[in-house]
Specification:
By secondary structure, the chain is of the alpha/beta class. It has two domains: 37-107, Uridine Diphospho-n-acetylenolpyruvylglucosamine Reductase, domain 2 (2-Layer Sandwich); 111-138, no CATH class. Helix content is 20%, strand content 18%. It has four helices and six strands; from the N terminus they run αβαβαββββα. The strands form two sheets. It has a four-stranded mixed sheet, covered by helices on one side.
Length: 138
Amino acid sequence: MAAGIIRRPAGAPLPGSARRRPFPTHRIQVSPAPAAAPPLVERNADVLQSFLSDAAHVPGGVATGIAFPKTADEVSALVRSARRVLPIGAQSSLTGGATPRGDLLISTRSLTDITLLPDSRVRADAGAPVVRGFSRAV
């Protein structure tokens, strides 16, 4: 057995302080999605061309269309209606991760709301510019 590795039976209680300090839990609150219609999906080849690769310039990107939702409800409607989706932001990935392979592209460009919550926290949409978020939160 390697130094520093302690084996314990499955289900055995954790030793010492680990038992007293539970890990924090983060829960996602889900509300029923209203019957929102998905936003217009742009299928024009000239428009799609600029979204078919990311900063890595991996060749062979193919997309069925691109949508620019403005609300979470519109994103939900798009995800429900599409067979495959690829969310895209700035397309600055250097790994080719934002290169579509037959996906419907969901741009975060129009998801820019930033809300200051009463308990001094901030809720930001996926496309909210970081600099804008900091200046509004301060």
